[in-house]
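Lecture notes, unit on protein representations.

Consider one protein chain, 114 amino acids long.
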Amino acid sequence: MHSHPPERRRSERLQLQIPIFLRGLDSAGAQFLELTKTLDISATGALVLSRRTLRPDQLLRITIPVTTEQVSGLIPAETPPIQLRVIRSVPAGDAHLIGARFLTPLSGASLTRA
């Protein structure tokens, strides 16, 4: 019988692939914008797929793309940016798996603020 170590995460992970815009500075210091996706997400962080090599402690921002179709004046044109810090970057074929922690844990209020 195998014993698994206790889960150290502060919040439950959900295996959700959510399209995101990932923004930050590349290794040369130039700003980048990449359309990518999460592989899993929790209230405190996310696992993100990226074509870029990112370093631990690097600060990033993500936003969730929205439809260009105007449904209602009540729906914002884009989601507010969410800031995160890279914890690790692991090569995965021609991409990298980026483990990152949100600077402020997500809540319903943080996703609806403009």
